[in-house]
Amino acid sequence: MSTTMPTSRQRSLRTWAFWAVPVLLLLTPLATNAYTQFIVNGMLISILVTLGFTLVIGNLGQLAFANTAFFGIGAYASAILSAKLGLPWIMTIPLAGALGALGGFLASSAALRGIRSYYLAIITLAFGELMRWAYLHTKPLTGGTDGLPLPRETMFGISLSDDTLKFYIFLAVTAVLVKATLNLLRSRFGRAVMAVRENEVATASLAIPTARVILTTFIWSGFLVGCAGALFARHVGHVFPESFGMLHLIASFAMVLVGGLGSVLGAVLGAVVLTALPEYLRAFPGMEELFFGLIVAAVLVAMPMGLASLLRRLSPIFVERYYREES
Amino acid sequence: MLMQLTLGGFAQGAIYALIALSLTVVYRSTTVVNFGHGDFVMAGAFLSYVLVVLAGIAFLPAAVLAMIAMFVLGVFFSKGLIRPIRGGPHIGLALMCISAGYILRGIARMVWGREVLPMPPVFDIEPIFLGNLVVTGDAVFIIGTVFVLLVVFFGLLGLTDLGKMVQAVYQSPRGARLIGLNVERFNDFSWGVGAALGALGGILVAPISLLHPDLGASFLIKGFAAMTLGGFGSLGGAVLGGILLGLAEQYAGAYIDSALIEITAYVFIVLVLFIRPHGLFGRKAVVKV
């Protein structure tokens, strides 16, 4: 590896920074108005979505399209559980995550049969399209094309339509899940994930059950994105099938690539950079597709390891231990 | 009833076969699966619409022009965007295809907005009645075109040096390079052929369906389903898989539930990959570790 690794002092600084950043972010609502607060909340959701995606395509190295499906599953689970069963929304977050994880299991279960690469990609693509079909054709549950509104609700006497309250909840969920993912990647399991990416046969020869590693990564990815879906349901207040369509998929790809494949820091950067921009493009039909498509193509040709690779060159403090060597 | 469904299934299946075949052509020579192929199909349909409705050209010359345009686009895509990242990870190549698809879709939506366009009927001839069977001009035209194309295609592959080149590059790109084939240029050519054949699929469905920028997604899935069933990399398998998918859709829609037409392809993909991952004629697909 040519890049210098961070020194122990830089590492402890990094640990401090990890907790300092969310604490400093607690002050954001002082600096925002209603609209910018809404965008910032959207960024927090995108961070989780991108993180879940980059785990599978960046760290595990498997091409997958089911991310949008997990997001939709999480959002619909949250909306259905709170609208039809009357659960408090906050309770639906872990449940939505669990259902997203189940989606991750289903989408990747073909891996147990030895299915990899393009085949796995196609089966996840089919899974995503099947979910979209399901939202539209299970009208009693999902409301079909009309979507499903979330009931009004209060927490601590504050309405849950308040963006500042939502910001604090989203921030807590996102910070905990990002930290959990970082720890997971630093564990024995995390190293196995990246070993599968580099060479599955060699990994298997070390007595690591590679199919199980693939499944578990998908399950964790599904959990993260499912939780993000529950946040999203409350964020917009009304769940529509169009939110989980092809546009969301290319946006996720763009966030992963712009930030940097397989990098947690990159997932955060990509989500933050690309959440705000498209808001301005929405008025022009077709512009969003064109914009994300061009960005993905440009990053692939000019900067394949994304913004995170620029930061890594700047200072070793940004080097992640599960970092992928540039090819 | 059964005959009518079979005819409809063959017409639909012929289009799926064409799309699966065009995906396979690219896959065999470049090992890239074009995840943006649905949008190439869409672009073919839109180009023919532009040429017929806006430029007022007759359908047949318009179709040929659209295919030539898509061939050129495929070659440029290969030269400009695929070649620079060929050495990188495979995921990059797949993502490049996806982004190209989205760029095409974005352009289509920018020009047409969220409208749904009907193409004027091309073969407005009286349907032929054979007993209970109604044979429409469209069905005859689609099945006929695809049949002729397949005969020419497989004739070229089986009887000419070009066919030997295709096989050589598929078996070993490195070996092909060693005996003096220009593999890079051959790959560009394959991208062009793949794009043009996919576009033809779009051109053939244009007169019998409504055009909108998102129409590619479902064709991509159908193409994949046909390819998976036939076996990845098998040209004959792609064609057979397409026809079988078309027939299965019609039968399932008529005898079970019409909502099933849309999801037959997904069911095919899942069942084939779980039961027989290499499909009918494919190379072994399973990783044994």
UniProtKB/TrEMBL annotation, chain A:
GO cellular component term, pick one: plasma membrane
Localization terms from the record: Cell membrane
Transmembrane feature ranges: 12-32, 38-57, 64-83, 89-111, 118-135, 165-185, 206-233, 245-278, 290-311
Gene Ontology MF terms in the entry: branched-chain amino acid transmembrane transporter activity
UniProt main location, coarse: membrane
Keyword terms of this UniProt record: Cell membrane, Membrane, Transmembrane, Transmembrane helix
Membrane topology: Multi-pass membrane protein
Name by which UniProt lists this protein: Branched chain amino acid ABC transporter inner membrane protein
Organism: Celeribacter baekdonensis B30
From TrEMBL, chain B:
Main location: membrane
GO biological process: amino acid transport
Annotated Gene Ontology cellular component terms: plasma membrane
Annotated GO MF terms: transmembrane transporter activity
Regions that span the bilayer: 7-27, 47-77, 89-108, 128-157, 189-212, 224-247, 254-275
UniProt-annotated location(s): Cell membrane
Statement: the UniProt record of this protein carries the keyword Ribosomal protein: no
Topology of this chain in the membrane: Multi-pass membrane protein
Keywords, sorted A to Z: Amino-acid transport, Cell membrane, Membrane, Transmembrane, Transmembrane helix, Transport
Annotated InterPro entries: ABC_transp_permease, BCAA_transport_permease
CDD domains: TM_PBP1_LivH_like
Family: Belongs to the binding-protein-dependent transport system permease family. LivHM subfamily.
Name the record gives this protein: Branched chain amino acid ABC transporter inner membrane protein
Organism for this UniProt entry: Celeribacter baekdonensis B30
